[in-house]
Amino acid sequence: MFYITGDMHRNFDRLSKLEYGDTLIILGDVGINVYLDERDEYLKEYLNSLGIKLFCVRGNHEERPENISTYKKSVMFNGEVYLEDKYQNLIFAVDGEEYNICNKSVLVMGGAYSIDAEYRIKNNLIWFKDEQLSHDEMVSIYNKVCGKHYDVVLTHTCPYKYEPKEVFKKKIDQFKVDRSMECFFDLIEYSISYDKWYCGHFHTDKCIDNIEFMFKNIKKFNKSMELLKK
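and the corresponding structure tokens:
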């Protein structure tokens, strides 16, 4: 069975709701490529041993898999993915790639801006400089997808016009937040047609139009997209 949920940030308690052989789509900030040392390795070994496949969208609080030497490109769901030989159950989508998942056409685009980037840099905390899509990546993705229809779009952040302002952190100066990713997704949202768009990043569970923000909820990734309750 295929399921979908929001950000994990190294907390995998939600996996207790799944069974051996299931696949869980995670909408970014998975948390397995953060420290880039034995702490990540121990976590990956544990997760890989569960027999649950994780299909991961890249978030902003994790290193790009293409920047880690142990990741190689492979083919899965009729598209390219990033895999490590040691952890075949832990799969990362390629930004801008198109997949066939459960007979649905799926577009995946990862990345976002960290609202605490300035603080992280100033205090020498973990921060990934290419957390957002580059200009060249945006141009390439736009040229690839413009005019197409997708059953499902999976991203970490959301189109600008759908930002859930009610969950914005009050201590953050919103004028300093780089929204180039959200503005790009506005352009993508206008340039394609789609049935459903799922995103994470904002740590909220809500729906607006055909956009659904996911955090702690888990839904079956099938025709009904029903909420998993156990």
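(Above: one complete record from the training split.) The chain has one domain: 2-220.
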